[in-house]
Design brief:
Chain lengths: ~210, ~250
């Protein structure tokens, strides 16, 4: 099996590479690239994302043909794709970080700033928080409800269709922290930084 | 609910741990990678390396340590010490650090914080503030590992780094550091009340109660400690169980 981590020159993806490489050891080959031919021929895709919604979308768009290739892969051909952090947020139609920016539009919804109740909750939401599993998700296999995952973000994805939500976390309100829609998976938290539980989730994705 | 973090910090000099873990099971007490791994396996919520190498030429050494550690530790890794420019940050992040902590360079030029957080995202920019009490409820920022007095008010500076995009503040009390008499709770409280980003408490931990004070009385989102963990007095697990028994939520 071939798994591609999309390297579109946005943010720090070393940890994603390290964790996936660790879990994949000897079983799965991991490629880190933005090469469209390689992406097309891979079995699964990981779409990381750090920095702002706008900077990530801009970076994706700056690589010719990348957005269309990803769309063909995930939406038309329905092959497994995992978005992490801003990688998940970009599934939305629109994001409001820095400036109003059009997202990929794969899962209808928006990305807006967490309502921190006038400073009552510090932002960014940094650290370990419990996930509340809302529906069975293939990537949660053998992962207990209320497991701790590592978060770093100030914006949240709000999908229109609540049935895509596979987990939420409690920070000032119920924040969507994981979605599953057919072959599309996304986590607001960072499985690559979430210790053994995070590695387990990565393993689940690789085993799909 | 968001958990309070416990962050062990390892001081690294010329590639070796200076204040190391004194556990008998260690093969090499000076090896930072091995020690980081012990902390991470023991339940540390993050790992912090502070490079106290005096010379500038040895950047490659800490980068190599980060590279090796990142392959074995799957919790967030923060690296500080000698971060002066964008290239330093790029090198550390590419090696596998998740956050970098900027100290003197942020005081010299707060625009650097802005530039760094814009380029890499606030999530990976920590500003380390070393503060010393100068009068009642007044603290001043010090640089170069506490050697240089700057005349800058710590509260004003904390607000300024937040405005400039810092994702977190690592706040060390120079008065308390190394004393084992507890954090400067007043300093912590003042900074946490005046900022809206998470503050990591540092400097002065001698007992588990001090960790409790930092979180509950000081309002810190995370507590950093070095020596209580290094000398094997307490394991990370002890600290977490203690805090949990006092109704402070931690990741167990």
């Amino acid at each position: 099996m071939n798994v591609t981590i999309v390297d579109y020159q946005s943010g720090n993806i070393s940890s994603v590479i390290n964790s996936f490489t660790e879990v994949a050891k000897g079983k799965v080959s991991i490629e880190v690239t933005s090469d469209i031919t390689k992406i097309k021929s891979s079995d699964k895709i990981v779409l990381p994302g750090q920095g702002s919604f706008k900077s990530c979308v801009d970076s994706l768009n700056s690589i010719s043909g990348l957005v269309d290739t990803l769309k063909d892969f995930a939406v038309t051909n329905k092959k497994p794709l995992l978005g992490i952090c801003v990688g998940l947020q970009m599934f939305a139609d629109i994001g409001y970080e820095e400036a109003e920016t059009k997202g990929l539009g794969w899962i209808p919804g928006k990305v807006s700033k967490i309502d921190n109740q006038k400073g009552k909750f510090k932002l960014p939401h940094i650290g370990w928080n419990e996930i509340e599993i809302q529906k069975e998700s293939k990537i949660f296999k053998d992962i207990k409800n209320k497991s701790h995952m590592y978060f770093v973000h100030s914006y949240e994805f709000i999908p229109n269709d609540k049935s895509v939500i596979s987990a939420t976390t409690d920070y000032s309100s119920e924040i969507v922290c994981s979605v599953e829609k057919d072959n599309l998976f996304g986590t607001q938290f960072h499985p690559e930084k979430s210790d053994k539980i995070g590695l387990k989730m990565i393993d689940n994705f690789l085993r799909l | 609910m968001l958990k309070n973090r416990i962050i062990p910090c390892l001081d690294v000099k010329d590639g070796r741990v200076v204040k190391g873990i004194n556990f008998i099971e260690l093969k090499d007490a000076g090896d930072p990678v091995e020690q980081a791994k012990i902390y991470s396996d023991g339940g540390a919520d993050e790992i912090c390396f502070l490079d106290i190498t005096a010379s500038n030429e040895n950047r490659e050494t800490i980068i190599d340590i980060v590279r090796k550690t990142a392959k074995e530790c799957f919790v967030p890794l923060t690296v500080g010490g000698g971060v002066r420019n964008i290239q330093n940050i790029t090198d550390l992040l590419l090696a596998g650090a998740d956050k970098v902590s900027i100290n003197t360079a942020a005081v010299k030029n707060v625009e650097f914080v802005k530039e760094a957080s814009k380029k890499f995202g606030s999530q990976c920019i920590v500003v380390a503030i070393d503060a010393k009490k100068v009068s009642d409820n007044k603290w001043e920022v010090f640089t170069y590992g506490g050697r240089n007095k700057t005349g800058i008010d710590a509260v004003e500076f904390a607000k300024k780094v937040e405005e400039n995009g810092a994702g977190e503040i690592l706040l060390t009390s120079m008065d308390k550091d190394g004393t084992k008499s507890g954090y400067d709770v007043d300093l912590l409280k003042t900074i946490t009340n005046n900022t809206n980003i998470p503050v990591i408490a540092s400097g002065g931990v001698g007992t588990l109660d001090h960790l409790y004070d930092g979180i509950v009385k000081g309002g810190a989102s995370a507590v950093l400690a070095a020596s209580i963990f290094h000398y094997g007095e307490y394991k990370i697990k002890d600290a977490k169980e203690y805090l949990n028994s006092k109704n402070v939520s931690v990741r167990l």
